[in-house]
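Full entry
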Amino acid sequence: MNARRLPPAPAEAGQILDAALHLLDRQVLDRDSVPVTTVDDLEITDVPVDRPLDSDAPAPVITAILTGPVLATRIFGGRPPASRMARIPWRLVHWIDTTVHLGVFQDELEATWTERWVRDRIIRRIPGGSHDPG
C-alpha cells in the first residue's frame, strides 16, 4: 500500500487557516469595528492541480478577500461574474478571530462604494437623513 504523506509544516512565518472554518461567511470589520461586508470567496495564489502532496512547491497563499452579490448563486447555483466581486487585498487584514478585522476604515475600501453612493445620493436627501440619530 502506497501511503501518501502530508507535507512538512511551512517554515516561513504565517498562520495556517482552514478557509471554510475560519474565513468564509465571516463578518469583516473595519478598524473601528464597523461592519463592512462578509467574506464570500477568497483569491489564492495558483497551485498546480497535479502537485503531489510531498512536493517542495510552496503552499497556496491568500491574496484577497472577495465579496459581492452571491445570494442568488447560493440559492440557484453557479458563480457570480468575477467583474461583480469586490476585492479586498489580504495585506489589509489586521487579525482574525470570530470576525475578520481590517486595519483600514471602510471609506477607504472600494468594496463599500455602493453603500456610500446610496448614503450620499439617497439617504441624505430624506428629511433628517443627514445626521446621526441620538
Observations:
- The beta strands are 27-29, 35-38, 41-44, 62-67, 86-89, 93-96, 100-102.
- The chain is about 15% helix and 20% strand.
- The longest strand covers residues 62-67.
